[in-house]
Amino acid sequence: MESMNRSQPPENYLIWGVKIIAGICILALLGVHFVVNHLLAPGGLLTYADILSYYQNPIVPMMEIGFLVLVVVHALLGLRSILLDLHLPAKIASSMDAALIIIGAVMIAYGAWLVIKVVQLG
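Above: the chain's sequence. Below: its structure in token form.
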């Protein structure tokens, strides 16, 4: 049997733990989202005016940005795990890590900017 040449060490337990904790937190926040936006809303859906009013509560934008951060971190760590399974050369793997961090930061910054704009509209 051939031994596999690993150019990248396997994912460490800390990153794996962050991914699991992020997934659990996402499920909790998704539950809150569904209750507020679909069960408590009249007719099962908030109107535009309802959303603007809803975002004036300071906890809501913080919760939405936290939800965004958790989803981006969870998704990009999952993508990183898949890419590591390809046994990429070390140079490409380190560039991949940097690229994923930059992509994640841009996604979070853009999403947070959108949340702030919605708050300002209200």
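The two ends are 65 Å apart (CA to CA).
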